Amino acid sequence: MNPKQMTQAALAAKVAALKRRGKTVVFTNGCFDLLHAGHVRYLAAARVMGDLLIVGVNSDASVRRAKGPTRPIVPLSQRLEVLAALAVVDYVIPFGAATPLALITALAPDVLVKGADWAATDIVGKEIVEQGGGRVARVRMAPNLSTTRLIARITGQCGGAGS
Known about the structure:
This protein has seven helices and five strands, in the order H-E-H-E-H-H-E-H-E-H-E-H. By secondary structure, it is of the alpha/beta class. A five-stranded parallel β-sheet has the order 3-2-1-4-5.
């Protein structure tokens, strides 16, 4: 197993120890299928909000439930490997539930980050983080950069240079 990947229990213990040492823990989550520049920019923006960044990654089954039967394009093991290779990512952890609520509850991050395309009221775990004294941050998304648009472009379903 990659040293950046741990079980939920092991990561929760590690996070608790780091927080006792005064470290600020940032958490974000997503599918991260076909990693692209928009993802990298988003993760870099999240990382500067604290001392370490944990990325929760949807399992293949949860991606299929959210995105449809043709997704993910890249299997979970490879998505975890690619994310773990990024210097801005300190830990990766998969989750199979529809939401990362159990992870957020277990890890109790200081900062919860989501894309600005999410309404603040729809961010899962917002109440947990804020009740623990943390904050929720929304990061502006890179325009015209999305996995869905990339897949459509590759499969010829959308034309034009700006697609």
